[in-house]
Amino acid sequence: MKSPTQFLFKQKHILLKLLIFILCICSINRSNNCCNQHFATPSSLSLINLSLKQLKLEGYLSFEELNHAAKDFGNRCHFLPLAILYPKSVSDISSTIKHVFEIGTITDLTVAARGHGHSLEGQAQAYQGLVINMESLQEPAMHFKNGELPYVDVSAGELWINVLHESLKLGLAPKSWTDYLHLTVGGTLSNAGISGQAFKHGPQINNVYQLEVVTGKGEVITCSEERNADLFYGVLGGLGQFGIITKARIALETAPKKVKWIRVLYSDFATFSNDQENLISSQGTFDYIEGFVIINSTGLLNNWRSTFNPKDPLLASNFSSEGRVLFCLEVAKYFNPEDTDSTNQHFGLDLLVKQAKFTVDHE
């Protein structure tokens, strides 16, 4: 009879082998995701090339200088496409996808929409396939509607930074952002679009009233919560697998006149996470709350404007970041100049400064 210790050892050994097996399978699958399994013959590629060149487009197809479409932000997968479509209109995308769908019985040609190339794992790449450069689709011009529920109709190939600039001219701004604004509207809506406003307004996909989508059959469909809802919810955050977003109606709000921006550094994770949870769950604190980790960062005191009293250099000199893991809480409060007194009171600053070793703020 085996002892309990021997039995447990055997069980652990079996579990370990099972875990190694699962990891190997996952590794193979991940590897396959970055190594295309479809290899078209030269003759079939020539036929596909010929058929694509016969399409009548307002934009154009390029069969040369394709290397940039085989790279993305993840920099792990490199799939060289057969061609890149530079659409000038939605009909360019629609007719091209319809053509690909119709010849689908004789080829495995795949299609991928590419925004600003910040995808991971080759999401915006298509090996021996067709990449659609969505940044070429920046027309028609943005259309704004003011009123109780303001919004902007914008091409999916437009960059968020441009949406911000045009919105601000009318005293408006999108409710929810991403940290980096040089990304396409369709690109972030195909993922989620998460930033420090998400705790209050939800991610960007929660702030969309309506979409125009080209389906896998080349159909152009308008969808919303009330109309073609399955497609609407499938495309938002769908990683481009349920259709290509070509236009979006984005919810706006009144833009603040000023913003108080504060960063707080912590050396203790529990204190950092507790403060963040308290601020997120409390009413009337900040309009933007986001936390992140800083590893081996140097020169923090030189790069950020410090709220240390200049007359107290001893306190500032006690803070050293070199070689340490620190936790940063970044918060912002929107306000109007006539309410300046409220910017330094009543929204959790005392809690943050009390717990932090170092703070910085910009107005």
- Sheet having the most strands: 6 strands, antiparallel
Tally of separate helices: 11
What's the order of the H and E elements?
HHEEHEEEEHEHHEEHEEHEHHEHE
Uncertain segments of ≥5 residues (pLDDT<50)? 4-33, 354-363
Catalytic activity: N(6)-dimethylallyladenine + A + H2O = 3-methyl-2-butenal + adenine + AH2
Cofactor: FAD
EC number: 1.5.99.12
InterPro entries: Cytok_DH_C_sf, Cytokinin_DH_FAD/cytokin-bd, FAD-bd_PCMH, FAD-bd_PCMH-like_sf, FAD-bd_PCMH_sub1, FAD-bd_PCMH_sub2, FAD-linked_Oxase-like_C, FAD-linked_Oxidoreductases_BP
What does this structure look like?
The chain is of the alpha+beta class and 363 residues long. Helices cover 30% and strands 23% of the residues. It contains eleven helices and 14 strands. The strands form three sheets. Strands 5, 6, 7, 8, 9 and 10 form a six-stranded antiparallel β-sheet that branches. A four-stranded mixed β-sheet has the order 1-2-4-3, covered by helices on one side. A four-stranded antiparallel β-sheet has the order 12-13-11-14. The radius of gyration is 26 Å and the shape is globular. The termini are far apart. This is cytokinin dehydrogenase.
